[in-house]
Amino acid sequence: MSFITLHEMGPRDGLQNEPAVIDLADKVALIDLLGTSGLRDIEVGSFVSPKWVPQMADTADVMRAIKLVAGVRYAVLVPNMRGWDSFTPFAKGPFEIAVFVSASEGFSQANLNCSVAESIARLRPVVDAATAAGVGVRGYVSCVTDCPFDGPVAPEAVAAAVANLRALAPMQVSLGDTIGKGSPDRVALMLDAVLDDVPALDLAGHFHDTGGQALDNISVSIDRGLRHFDSAVGGLGGCPYAPGAPGNVATEAVIDHVERLGFETGIDRDVIAKAAAIAQRMRG
Ligand code: HMG
Ligand code: MG
User: Fold this and answer.
1) C-alpha distances out from residue 177 to 70, 156, 257, Å
2) Number of neighbours of residue 214 by Cβ within 10 angstroms
3) Looking at ligand 1, which atom is closest to the CA of residue 114?
4) Ligand 1 within 6 A of 229 CB?
5) Class in CATH terms, 5-282
């Protein structure tokens, strides 16, 4: 049977958007439970400015406190060398970094306070340092169909952003429909542009479900050969700099959807249901 890999976003993309303070112990309990579910990739935090994203300020404490499960990779977002410096104590563990750029200028300014070109330049030393340290790197491109500030995004701009990230080092790139506005037709056009240069297995789909089309967008991506998808337990999520991005597609919904399509995920649905209940209680 064919396999689909899910990358769990709840503890990072989910919780970063919650207005209420969430206790370290609660975050750790959620991640520890997710670690027993069969998930192999869990994003647990970000080394970004605590003024911009206060909810992620305890990322180092989270990384120190979680029970590391053999075979699970734990990822954190790193936007610049300052973030890399915070990551270095963890460079020998099962931790990876994720770097992120936007396909649109408006979101780049709002999310990273710099242009798309500047964001790539900031990431070059980060990716070089990670490569030298043997740390895995994953990439994200945001706003792959629509930007909350600039409107519709051209597929060519997405393909260029993916190429610019992969010029830094070989990496899987996750394609983010940050505000969940993409329709299957437009996601397909975007994917066709990216797939001209990049193998489908080096890509992931990261769909927010604002428009209720995330599962259809996953289907279109599967049709084009993608086998990696990002999701968040309980549909946690959003992005503080993307107005109108309330939720990542729920992990439990993606598991059910891809299993109906005949794929295996290796994830225990009962454990995910328990984690989703905890996630729902964390929601403000
Ligand atoms: P900046 O203000 O342009 O940077 O922020 P700066 O270099 O001028 O620094 C300003 C202050 O931030 C300084 O502190 C720095 O020390 C500090 P001050 O002197 O004012 O006290 N600083 C940092 N502190 C901790 N860690 C750091 C760091 N860097 C600077 N790494 C910066 C630039 C990138 C830091 C800022 O714009 C930022 O933190 N942005 C937040 C980005 C973010 O986390 N967004 C959400 C995640 S992305 C996402 O959700 C999309 C995704 O899910 C895919 C999708 O859905 O599309 C991945
Ligand atoms: Mg996201």
Assistant:
1) 31, 15, 19
2) 28
3) 3
4) no
5) alpha beta
Phi, psi of 206 (to 5 degrees): -130, 95
Would you say 231 and 254 are in contact if contact means Cβ atoms under 8 Å apart? yes
CB of 52 within 6 A of ligand 1: the answer is yes
* DSSP state for residue 68 in the 8-state scheme: P
Which residues are marked as active site?
A: 239
For residue 17, name the pLDDT band (cuts at 50, 70, 90): confident
- Give the mean pLDDT of 29-45: 98
Ligand number with the minimum distance to the CA of 174: 1
For atom 28 of ligand 1, which residue has the closest CA? Answer: 49
For the stretch 95-129, pLDDT in tens is: 999 999 999 999 999 999 999 999 999 999 999 99
Expressed in angstroms and rounded, the spacing between residue 245 Cα and the centre of ligand 2 is 8
Secondary structure of residue 176 in the 3-state scheme: strand
Q: Which of 97, 21, 35 is nearest to 65 (CA)?
A: 35
Q: How close is the Cα of 54 to the center of ligand 1, in Å?
A: 11
Q: What is the pTM of this model?
A: 0.97
The answer to whether the Cα torsion of 171, 199, 115, 245 is positive or negative is: negative
**Whether the Cβ atoms of residue 279 and residue 234 lie closer than 8 Å to each other:** yes
- Per-residue pLDDT tens for 162-174? 999 999 999 999 9
> How would you label 106-121 residue by residue, b for 16+ Cβ within 10 Å and e otherwise?
ebbbbbbebebeebbe
Specify the pLDDT at position 21: 85
Ligand nearest to the backbone CA of 175: 1
> How many whole angstroms separate alpha carbon 276 and alpha carbon 248?
13
- Which residues make Cβ contacts (< 8 Å) with residue 168, sequence separation at least 6? 99, 120, 123, 124, 127, 128
Residue 239 pLDDT:
57
